[in-house]
Design goal:
Length: about 180
């Protein structure tokens, strides 16, 4: 659920906390929007794309490359580049906004993020997997998600080995079952 705060006076702290207690919250302050996670400690500021678009991109990224052990904040970092590029390139902004609108239209009432089951969302993604929009998002995720050094330990990857003398003397040949 996305909560929108427009900065109008009269919103108490209690009401702010109540509205932000859902899976995520969206705050619009001085023309800039911020996506906040209620379950984790992270926020994502958006400048070019709609905040709802960014929330859908995060869910889409999780569905394209699903890793239950990877927190949403890393997916948010991975899709942030689309917001940055959309600010510089109107064609990219149009591609992403129109792609998300199409995804929401195909998903029915409640849009893509309103689909409760992963298999339902993946079925919708399969309908658009040959589109330039999907290929742009998927291709960007390969680099932007897996090049985050903070994610590597989650997968058990220790990073490059050249600076440490290579893999041979660092456990490469310690397989006991061969």
């Amino acid at each position: 659920m996305v909560t929108i705060y427009t900065g109008k006076p009269g919103l108490s702290r209690r009401e702010l906390l109540k509205r932000g207690s859902a899976a995520g919250a969206l705050f619009v302050i001085s023309g800039s929007a911020v996506l906040l996670s209620a379950t984790e400690s992270w926020a994502l500021e958006t400048s070019a794309l709609k905040p709802e678009t960014m929330a859908t991109l995060i869910q889409m990224a999780r569905d394209i490359y699903p890793h239950d052990q990877v927190p949403d904040r890393y997916y948010a970092i991975a899709v942030k580049s689309h917001d940055e590029q959309a600010g510089k390139d109107p064609a990219h902004k149009e591609l992403i906004e129109n792609g998300i609108a199409d995804l929401d239209r195909r998903s029915g009432v409640g849009g893509y993020t309103g689909l409760g089951w992963e298999e339902d969302r993946v079925a919708v993604l399969r309908q658009i997997e040959t589109t330039p929009f999907f290929q742009t998002v998927r291709g960007g995720l390969v680099v932007s998600l897996y090049n985050q050094k903070e994610v590597w330990p989650i997968f058990g990857y220790e990073g490059e080995s050249y600076s440490k003398g290579g893999y041979i003397k660092r456990g490469f040949d310690d397989i006991e079952w061969l």
